[in-house]
Amino acid sequence: MAKKSKEVFETDPQRFSTNKELLQALGLLWSKTDWNPLRSIFSLSLITSGMFHYSLRVAFTYTSMELLTIIKILHLTNVYFLAGLCAYVVFLQSRRFHIIHSIIKDGFYNYPEGLTQEQMMIRSKANHKVSKITKYGLRFFVISTLGSCLKEPVPYDFEEWTKEYNGWIPFVVDSWPKYFASQFYHLLAALSAALLGGSVCIVFIAVAEHLLAQLEILSISFRNAIGCIPTRGDKVAEKLAYQRMKYCLQHHNVILRFFDEFQKYYSIPLFCMLAGTTVAMCTIAFVVTDPSSTFGVSAAFLSLMAPEVAFCICYCTYGQKITDMGDVLRETVYNAPWYYQPRPVKMAMLMVLIKTRKPLTLSAAGLKDCSIKSIGEITQTTYTYFNALQIFRGNPTSNK
C-alpha cells in the first residue's frame, strides 16, 4: 500500500496566498493595470438591486402583510445591505490592500541572519492554512448565505400561481417563463451576496493568519536575541546582541505598520457585521416572543441567521487571536532576563515594552473591539431585549 505523501509547505513569500485573485475576480480590487470595471459594476449593481428588491416589497405592500413576513423581508434586506456595504468599502480601500499584499509578498522582514527552521515552518503552515480555509470556508459562507436568501415559493400548477414572493417583482408571475426569469434573478442576487460577503471575510482570515504567524516569529526572534547573554566587557558580543535586538525592533515596526493598515482596511466591515449581527439576534428575540409565532416559525428564523452569526464568530475569533498573540509577544520581552544585558540592549527592550503597552486590538470603527468579549456583549444585549419583550407582551420569564 502506497504511503500518503507528506504535505509540501511553501517557503517563498512571493508565492504566499493573500486571496488577491479572489478580490480581482469579483471586482473588489482597483488597480491601474489589471482592473476590470465591468466586474465591479456588475457585482456592486447586482447586490444593490437585491437590497432594493426586498425593501421595495415592504414599501409597496406593507399594509397587506403580516408582521412576521415584514421582519423576514427586512432581514433579507439587511443581509444584502451588510454584504454590499462591506464590499463597497473594501473596493474603496483598495490602496490599503495593495500595501498589505506587498508586505506579505516581501516576507514582512528579512533578517540578515535568516529565519530558523522553526520560524520558516510557522510561516509556511500559516500559508497552507490560508489555502485550506479559502477552499472550504468560502464554500461554507456561500452555502449558508444561499440557504438564507433562496427561500421562494414554488407555484402549484399553471392555473393557480403563488404570488407572495419575498421580494418585489415589476411584473406578475403568471407563467413558467416569468417564474424562471424571477428565480434566475434571485439566484444571481443571492450569489452576489454570498460571494461578496464571503470573500471579504475570507480575505480577512488570510491576512489575520499571516499576521499571527509574524507575531509568533517575532516572539521567537526576541527570545533568541535576549537569550544570548554576552560576557561582560566583550564589546564584540555586546554589539552583536544589540544588533540582533535592532533587527527585532525593525521587524516589530513592520508588523505595527501592517496591523495599522489592516485595522483601517477592515474598520467599517467589522462595525457593519457586529451591528448587523446584533440586529439579527434581536430580531430572533422579537419573533420568538411574538404570540402568533410557532416553533416552526422560530426555527425557520433561526436558520436565517446563519450568515450573520458565522461572519461575526470568524471576525471576533481572529480578532481575539491577534490580541492574545500580541500579549504573548509582550510577555516574552517582559519576562526575559534583561538585568544581564548591556545597557543598549536594555534600552531596546524598554522601547519594545513601551510599544507593546497598547494591545493589538482590532476595532470596529473605533466603537467596539473585535474579540470574544464582543460575542458575549451581543448575546447579553439580545437576552436583555428578549426579557424586555417578554415583560412588554405580558409573558415575563419566571424567576427561580
TrEMBL record:
Keyword Cell membrane: yes
Bilayer topology annotation: Multi-pass membrane protein
GO CC, any one term: plasma membrane
Localisation per UniProt entry: Cell membrane
This protein's UniProt keywords: Cell membrane, Membrane, Olfaction, Receptor, Sensory transduction, Transducer, Transmembrane, Transmembrane helix
One Gene Ontology term of the molecular function aspect: odorant binding
Residues spanning the membrane: 38-56, 68-91, 184-208, 265-289, 295-318
Any Gene Ontology biological process: signal transduction
Range of residues in the leader sequence: none
Family: Belongs to the insect chemoreceptor superfamily. Heteromeric odorant receptor channel (TC 1.A.69) family.
PANTHER family: ODORANT RECEPTOR, ODORANT RECEPTOR 19A-RELATED
Protein name: Odorant receptor
Biological source species: Adelphocoris lineolatus
